[in-house]
Amino acid sequence: MRATILVHRIPIETPVQTSFGVMGDRPSVVLRIEDEDGAVGFGEVWCNWPSVGAEHRARLLEALILPLAGESRLAREPAALWRWLTARLRVLAIQSGEPGPIAQCLAGLECALQDLMARRAGLPLARFLAPDAAATVAVYASGINPTGAPKTAERAIAAGYRACKVKIGFSPERDRENLLGARALLGSANRLMADANQAWTLEEALRFAPTADEAGLDWLEEPLAHDAPDADWKRLAQAMDTPLAAGENFASDRDFAELPAARGLRVIQPDLGRWGGVGQLARLGAKFREGGLLFCPHWLGGGVGLLTSCHVKAALNDEDGYVEVDFNDNPMRSEIAAEVFASLRDGRVGLADKPGIGIGDEALDAFRAHLEISREVVF
Fold first, then answer.
1. What is the pLDDT of residues 322-361, one digit of tens each?
2. Which residues in the chain are classed under CATH 3.20.20.120?
3. Do 30 and 210 meet the contact criterion of CB atoms below 8 Å apart?
4. pLDDT digits (tens, 9 = 90+) for 74-119
């Protein structure tokens, strides 16, 4: 197979703000895989942080991941390849101190190969995974910056969303003003969530808990650091009515098996571009549905990963939960996913009845002016 590694960077006027940093442009790492018969698949690698993360992950793919994938002879079995590579690179990930970047590269590769296999079968990815896949998926507007948050949330509702998530973790006064202001504008008919991006100590989170309940949040996401003690998470969960959400920073079978119960989580948010790819996201979604937890795939990147997430969610054919949609300016999200999101009505989008995730080379060719790296690897 031939892999093309594409790194884009697109300037934006309004930086994306989080409690731990600011994103001044929108990076993207996309893998295009083509087999000997001309079938093509696309996958996206999470690369938002640090600012040089996209270029670093592209080099990992070129120098390490793709040559090993060629050795495996498992390219037509994406989930098996992911397991093989994860085991093969376990010690190197520890030794290098880079388990995250390596896992993200493996996840993006798995997604690209799943897309390719769906196209070879002539099926949309959702129906390739499950013949009874849903035709529509619920989505919510995410990443709403603290500056002007209530008005941005109101714009999202006007655009067709029925749920919004506001960034918090800046100051108690600002966070409270934004959430109560958004609730006043959205009314009780629309859903509101908040993401603190691991900003607080347990004491700070406990002080915020009454505001979360007052705002009627559907969930409070990552109020504590991922490495905070399980007991702290559990204490916070018991101190408020608002459900706790996490999962984007889970990066092992053990995390997903143990942490939801140990931390009192009621909303689970795996990210297929950060760990596991399509196969693991589908498996986890089915597991957590059976366990009565709300399954809401995390995504904060371009359109390739977003469409892939939507197809996996559709394959589960569940009526609850949402796929996250970054509402900040990002042409590689809005233009690549334009056909699907033109159907946005009452908080749901309809997936295109096209093979794979439904895009072709022209979707990426439109961003040639922003191409930073293009490398080819035969594996």
1. 999 999 999 999 999 999 999 999 999 999 999 999 999 9
2. 127-350
3. no
4. 999 999 999 999 999 999 999 999 999 999 999 999 999 999 999 9
In the structure, what pLDDT confidence band is assigned to residue 299 with cuts at 50, 70 and 90? very high
Q: Look at residue 20 and tell me whether its pLDDT is greater than 90.
A: no
* Distance between CA atoms of residues 181 and 150, nearest Å: 5
Quickly list H helices, the chain.
53-60, 66-72, 78-88, 90-96, 99-120, 125-129, 149-158, 172-186, 202-214, 230-238, 253-263, 277-290, 303-316, 331-334, 338-341, 361-365
DSSP bridge partners of 167: 195
Q: How far apart are CA 277 and CA 284, in angstroms?
A: 11
pLDDT in tens, 28-58: 999 999 999 999 999 999 999 998 999 999 9
Q: Which homologous superfamily does the CATH classification assign to the domain defined by 127-350?
A: Enolase-like C-terminal domain (3.20.20.120)
Q: Are 32 and 44 in contact (CB under 8 A)?
A: no
Neighbours of 237 (CB within 10 A): 18
Cα dihedral 104, 194, 50, 362, rounded to 10, equals 60
For the chain, residues classed under CATH 3.30.390.10 are: 2-122+368-378
Residue 368: Cβ within 10 Å count: 10
Nearest to 278 by CA among 330, 238, 314, 331: 314
Bridge partners, residue 17, by sequence: 22
Largest CA distance in the chain: 59
What is the C-alpha to C-alpha distance for residues 296 and 292, in angstroms, rounded to an integer? 13
Beta-bridge partner residues of 7: 29, 373
In degrees, to the nearest 5, what angle opens at C-alpha 165 toward C-alphas 7 and 46?
20
What superfamily in CATH does domain 2-122+368-378 come from?
A: Enolase-like, N-terminal domain (3.30.390.10)
